[in-house]
Amino acid sequence: MEAVPTVRVVAVKVRARVFVSGQVQGVLFRVKTRQEARKHGVRGWVRNLQDGRVEALFEGEEEKVKSLIDFCRQGPAGAIVTGADVVWENYSGGFGGFEVRYW
User: Fold this and answer.
1) Is the pLDDT reported for residue 17 higher than 70?
2) Which end of the chain is more exposed for a tag (fewer CB within 10 A), N or C?
3) Are 27 and 79 within 8 A, CB to CB?
């Protein structure tokens, strides 16, 4: 009987920077984004920008990062998202977890 070769699937790692606009500050957007990121095993950070937007940097498996982007397009309860611009960057693997950053 011949041995069946083992197929190993390697998840593609990606990095995305997201700029979220609308009513996204003062509505727990950063805290909820951190919770979602940690739940999905995505690394990086999220912060408020002085112009009223929220910026997030996500690194991880492609499907998990995409789910975080989808979350940002909706936002948590209380947020009114009017736009979410995504910039794809080169994966670096330089984050140990996910954090809220302060300006």
Assistant:
1) yes
2) N
3) yes
Q: Which of 15, 30, 43, 53 is catalytic?
A: 30
- Catalytic one among 15, 43, 48, 53? 48
In the residue annotation, 38 being an active-site residue is answered as: no
Q: Are strands 54-61 and 43-48 parallel, antiparallel or unpaired?
A: antiparallel
34 three-state secondary structure: helix
Q: What does pTM read for this prediction? A: 0.89
Concatenate the DSSP letters of all residues of 40-85 into one string. HT-EEEEEE-TTS-EEEEEEEEHHHHHHHHHHHHH-STT-EEEEEE
CATH 3.40.50.1100 is held by the domain 13-101: no
Orientation of helix 62-74 relative to helix 29-40, angle to 10°: 160
